[in-house]
Design a protein that fits this description.
alpha/beta, Rossmann fold, 4-stranded parallel beta sheet, 5 helices, 14% strand, disordered N terminus, disordered C terminus
Length: 132
Amino acid sequence: MRTTPNRRMASSTGPNESDEKKTILITGSSQGLGQAIAYEMAKNGGHNIVVNYIAGCEEGAKETVQQVQQLGGNAIAIQADCTDPKQVKEMFQKAIEHFGKVDVLVNNAGVTRDNLVPRMKPQVNDWIRYFF
């Protein structure tokens, strides 16, 4: 007896197996890995993408938004420094005002001068405890 694959499981829609469009906030998505993640999520389900960027990276954020839209997703860019809890809270508020919710958070932003995570100061991620 031949079985038919479950259409839901066979589709590649990004963060989960559902065909439902998700709102995905990707920190540091104006360049590099964050930008690539945004493009992949747009291709794999046309999700709503919140492009987070820091001051000085506006052009990259605009480029990411345009490319996400060309790939079938919906996107907005929000400037916020993820080391500042107040700015992070405002970023989430803006994202929710625009899309109604945030389903997925991709914590991609981060800089370390020596590239050794164990040497990063704990204060860099203190804002996480602020929200959870």
